[in-house]
Amino acid sequence: MPLFLAACLFALGVVSTRAVYFPPGRLLLALIALMIPCAAAGLYAQRLAWLPMGLLWIGLGTWCAEMEPQPSAEPALLSLSDGLLRTVEGTVTNAGPIRNQIDQGVDEADAQLPSQRIDLRLSNIESVDDNSDQQISVSGAVRLTVRWPQSTPARIRCGEHVRAIARLLPPETYHDPGVWSRTDYLLDQGITSTASLNVDRVEIIDAAETTSLFCRLREAQHALGARLLTLPALMRNLPAPLRITQDDAIMLSAMITGDRTFLAHSLRVGFERTGSFHMLVVSGLHLAIMAGCILWLACKLRIPRIPATLITIVVSFAYALLTGFATPVQRSFWMVTLYLIGRLVYRDRNVLNTIGFAALCLMMASPRALFDSSLQMTLLAVVAIGGIAIPLLSTTIHPYLTATRNLRRVALDVKLAPALAQFRVILRMISAPLQRLTNKRLAWRIFPGAVRLLIRVEEAFIVSIAIELAMMLPMAIWFHRITLFALPVNLLILPLLLLLMPAALLTCAVLLAWPSVAIVPGTVVALLLHFGAGLVQLFGSLRWGDLRVSSPASWQVAIFWILLAAAVAGMRCSRPWARGVACCCLLLAGVAAILPRPIQHPRNALLVEAIDVGQGDSILVITREGKTLLIDGGGIGGGPRQAPQEFDIGEEVVSAVLWSRGIRHLDAVALTHAHSDHMGGLPAILRNFHPQELWVGNNPPVATYTALIEEARRLRIDVRTLRAGIAFQLGSAEVHVLAPFSGYAAGSEPSNNDSLVLRVAYGETSVLLEGDAEAPVEQAMLAEPGLQSTLLKVGHHGSVSSTTPGFLARVAPRWAVISCGLHNRYGHPREEVLQALQSARVGTLSTDINGASCFRLDGASVQPEPCSSGASVP
């Protein structure tokens, strides 16, 4: 398997660039020089050729990685993305469907407004200075979310030339260790800035007469998705089991066209918990099934091998283009193509060589693809199948599968191993009396077929175990979850998908040609889809089957790869004991990836980390012994209620930060008050980390707060109400409650002055955490002793309503930290507050500028320190 080994060495070279910078010019000279020993070894010492050739492949990977251009924002466009109203013109390069969902940061009142996401390739933009207001040429692309407040939506189409008035801003990014970067994600698509605007600020200048192939494919994708969404209306009179619902149609659209616009979190969550989300997205498996259907149909029509192969490749390519030609689909297409071409020329088709060749092509084209989760999972799945499962099955189960055929031909027994011959004798001993009791067909055809089916089930079980163990590392790193039910669910989902995909494709084709007849195959699709969704819902409702895990440390990643390599090598060894050792290595590799690791925090000091959650609050405190306290969980908005959001900041940001430190369980979670920018992320935190206690103050019983308390009680978390004057220990740290006061009465709606104010002290150092407490609460706290603190979490995100002069003088901090979002609409932190802190000579960090901010309180002094992560991305 030389191509597989070459791909591994090439990947090693790519990975090395993440740790060390190699000048491309010097690398190129080294590669040219390395070709001399490679040629010499090939001519005179072939046994030693592996060494210079291995170094050459590593060097090629390093050079390709260093030479690849990194995506970057367009400087001119970025400089003008400052939140001012500007007129922009450009061509729509991608236009999504219209949906009823708000974008991040949009007011709750707009929650149900129709919106459409479009990508605009700019031709010019308005530039304003003290002397002029003019349109200037600019390159780059922006992503706009267009809303229809009062009019009937009329979809903007790809290829149209439009003019818009928008407030462009760079994509919001959370600068925390271990958190996914939306900026990098959009830069990979060429997007520099984003904006949300009403449709009355969009003018279609002209509709392009000729559009690009990409636009035509995108429009075809959206049109097909829209046609699939009409199925529920066609089938509304059928019984429920045979009727495709709106949710079913959305899942079908995602499964067939790859358009996940309408795939809400509520539809995805069960599939994510059971490890079967691949059913809802166009993946390599979907393309492979479709290619298999085309090839089977061509064979049934007696089309010759070469035309049948070419037809299959062409149709597969067209389908891949229709679905957006995403990276997983590209990989699957090239592997399917290589397999079919190899089948034509009667070449051995080594699975590892096939994936090695495909991986080499993809990594040479874009070495960054190696750090993509989908590529890593594809590689590991194929390695598990081709490098471990198939060699194991070839010496254990597959011979018995072959032995079940032609049972009546006794002469075949002498050519088989004794165990296989004995197996055939036993089957004949069962078939002979079975024939006398029933008939010949049942005894000699159906009974051996049933035995083969059982063996196939065992084969699928072994393959699934190998894949699940190999997937432990990427699942822990990228998704922080281990799904205990992934094995049984996928054993049923994968065969179901083999039936569902052809039925869904047939339904789609008939729907385009003759909509009323599409009801017939649609009933089959409905039955299969309802069975699969019901299965997922059943296992997904069992929450204990979905385990959340922290990011593995670098040493765990290294051990995983070493053990996996040992497992693959052991399976290729001919000695009997080697395969048992290989199975043990694979099991240990999976265990090593999910082993708990020590929490990353400074020894002999208290750690305080202000997590960057944008315009919100979330503070992590870790004591010297490793006791953990999280104050608030961030959220979107700032009002008492929170509109439904697809982006869960508790799951995507705060949990990711905790997992990157190795935290699996929190000792306590505190909610300062019931505003959504403090409370919005806490439900996910409670589910993911199961704290022992939830600390609350005096909050009005609004719906979101009541739901949080009910969720805590459902999870058996003790809800502890705190009042001013209470003090207790958290490990070696002492916690003092400064507000709310015992006589404080909350209003009917949450307010900033409901805030739970805590002072956490360690030795001579302390941190004062005042949430959003405003001037009245600060004034009342002046009467309390022990207010002085070395670190202050500034109240209300740096608003002028907090951090009054008298309060700041009494606290007398050495350092302060402000939690707020960049370009927030409130103008936080206010210049007056920053000036007051500067006048008091308080060192100040702000999450909008500095990102996540960490402080080390060693009992004598407080100092900021880097918020580094102990996890390593493979």
Care to describe what's here?
The protein has 874 residues and is α/β, with parallel strands linked by helices. 47% of the residues lie in helices and 15% in strands. It contains 30 helices and 24 strands. The strands form four sheets. Strands 15-14-13-12-11-10-23-24 form an eight-stranded mixed beta sheet, with helices on one face. Strands 1, 2, 3, 4, 5, 6 and 7 form a seven-stranded mixed beta sheet that branches. A seven-stranded mixed beta sheet has the order 16-17-18-19-20-21-22. Strand 14 (693-696), helix 26 and strand 15 (718-721) form a beta-alpha-beta unit. Helix 1 (2-16) runs parallel beside helix 13, helix 6 runs antiparallel to helix 8 and helix 17 (440-470) packs across helix 19 (486-513). The chain starts with a helix and ends in a 9-residue tail after the last strand. The model is unreliable at 102-111, 638-644 and 870-874 (pLDDT under 50).
